[in-house]
Amino acid sequence: MPNIASAKKRLRQSLVRRARNRSTKSLLRSQIRKVREAVAAGNVADAETALRSCARFLDRAAAHRVVHKNSASRLKSRLSARIKALKQKAA
């Protein structure tokens, strides 16, 4: 446990930020899962809707440095590639 006042404050701040980051990451994983489930079910319309929502959350998380911007970009690219493949398979 910290003894110095500034260290105590840093501990409080880090605990709050950790909780916020964990919540955001959990929400992100849920959004990504929704896209993957829609693709697995073969539902193009639901997958595209879920991807738009997921991309928004990814961009927001990257802007707040919860995830790296390249990781967010890579995830968006891979999810959109799955949807594109699903569309071509359906057509």
Helix-strand layout with pairing:
Layout: H1 5-41, H2 44-63, H3 69-90
Key phrases:
91 residues, mainly alpha, Methane Monooxygenase Hydroxylase, Chain G, domain 1, 3 helices, elongated
Structural account:
- With 91 residues, the protein is mostly helical.
- It has one domain: Ribosomal protein S20 (Methane Monooxygenase Hydroxylase, Chain G, domain 1, Up-down Bundle).
- 87% of the residues lie in helices and 0% in strands.
- Helix 1 (5-41) packs antiparallel against helix 2, helix 1 (5-41) packs parallel to helix 3 (69-90) and helix 2 packs antiparallel against helix 3.
- The longest helix is centred in the N-terminal third of the chain and has 37 residues, at 5-41.
- The protein is elongated.
- 15% of the residues are buried.
- The mean pLDDT is 96.
What proportion of the residues form beta strands (DSSP E)?
under 5%
CATH architecture verdict: Up-down Bundle
> What's the quaternary structure here?
single chain
Can you summarize the main beta sheet? none
CATH topology: Methane Monooxygenase Hydroxylase, Chain G, domain 1
Compose a concise summary of this entry.
The protein has 91 residues and is mainly α. It has 3 helices and no strands. The chain has helices at residues 5-41, 44-63, 69-90.
